[in-house]
Automatic annotation (TrEMBL):
The protein, known as: Phosphate transport system permease protein
Membrane-protein topology: Multi-pass membrane protein
KW Cell membrane (keyword) present: yes
Keywords: Cell membrane, Membrane, Phosphate transport, Transmembrane, Transmembrane helix, Transport
Species of origin: Arthrobacter echini
Cellular component GO terms, alphabetical: plasma membrane
Protein localization: Cell membrane
Stretches that traverse the bilayer: 20-43, 63-96, 108-131, 163-186, 278-300
Entries under InterPro entries matching the protein: MetI-like, MetI-like_sf, Phosphate_PstC, Phosphate_Transport_Permease
Length: 310
């Protein structure tokens, strides 16, 4: 009786597998098609810039001279965000997963998830109205006492609208992403590995260092790369906080700009060659994001066979 039942249900099971497999394949192909379509659109719309007279490009020195400062500004802002948010996010995730009492951990988890749901324009308004004026005084102190360091060279911005402020706002924005993903990875650490480390006399910190962090290494890298992608493409928060200007090595001077903010601020009034310039800038941002993801996958692939908890 049971053998007959299994035999009769088997074709239906195989049919369901085939449907699911086809649906998964279709979803993958659709993603690739959309990605290819976006890339093709950007390339076609940016072609006029390639054949244009350099004097006609914004700045009068060609597209490379125009795009280089905002690429550097984009990378600097994203790097500041990642350097600030990654260690803090990992620390908060470890506190939630391994230190906080259950009720407190649940409360912290809800707060982190709530931070991820706040619109970027709200972060930008907070950075513009609250954070930047309060940081302006600190920037003056940095210029006076540490001005010999190029990144703190004066004159400091009087409004606080600098690339460092933009990086701090971006760090607050990507913090929930890194924290949430890291927390879930930490919670997946095999309990037997943690108990084995503790049984050998390790303290809780040593157990985390020997069992949890090695196991979660790939997940932490993935979380950081997702946060970096958000920071690279963020528009409104940076546009509200950053006072655009010429490229400068100092993080506390007015100046610098990011690609996303440059497009957002100028796209509505752009037409003709100027529109192609902005689309070409978007293509550059597309390539940067693609390269970042490729590098992240390469880093993860190098450590794929060893998680530290195998």
């Amino acid at each position: 009786m049971s053998t007959t039942t299994l035999t009769r249900s088997d074709p239906a099971g195989r049919s369901g597998d085939r449907v699911f497999s086809a649906a998964a394949l279709g979803a993958g192909v659709l993603i690739l098609a959309v990605l290819f379509g976006v890339a093709l659109f950007l390339i076609l719309q940016a072609l006029p810039v390639a054949g244009a007279d350099p004097a006609e490009i914004t700045g009068g020195e060609g597209f490379a001279a125009y795009i280089f400062p905002i690429v550097v500004g984009t990378v600097i802002a994203a790097a500041i965000a990642l350097l600030l948010a990654t260690p803090l996010g990992i620390g908060v995730a470890l506190f939630i997963s391994h230190y906080a009492p259950r009720r407190l951990a649940m409360t912290f988890g809800y707060v982190v998830d709530l931070l991820a749901a706040i619109p970027s324009v709200v972060y930008g308004a907070w950075g513009y109205a609250v954070l930047a004026p309060r940081l302006a005084t600190g920037y003056g102190w940095l210029a006076e006492n540490l001005g010999w360091i190029p990144i703190f060279a004066g004159p400091a911005s009087q409004t606080g609208k600098t690339i460092l402020t933009a990086g701090i706002v971006l760090a607050v924005m990507v913090l929930p992403i890194i924290t949430s993903l890291s927390r879930e990875i930490f919670l997946q650490t095999p309990t037997l590995h943690e108990e084995a480390a503790l049984a050998m006399g390790a303290t809780r910190l040593e157990m985390i260092r020997m069992a949890v962090l090695p196991f979660a290494r790939n997940g932490i890298i993935s979380a950081a790369m997702l946060g970096l992608g958000r920071a690279l493409g963020e528009t409104m928060a940076v546009a509200l906080v950053l006072s655009g200007g010429a490229l400068t090595a100092s993080l506390i001077q007015s100046g610098n700009q990011t690609i996303a903010a440059e497009i957002a601020l100028n796209f509505p009034e752009a037409f003709g060659l100027r529109l192609s310039e902005l689309i070409a800038a978007g293509l550059v941002l597309f390539v940067i994001t693609l390269v970042v993801n490729i590098i992240a996958r390469w880093i993860i692939g190098r450590h794929k066979e060893f998680s530290g908890a195998n």
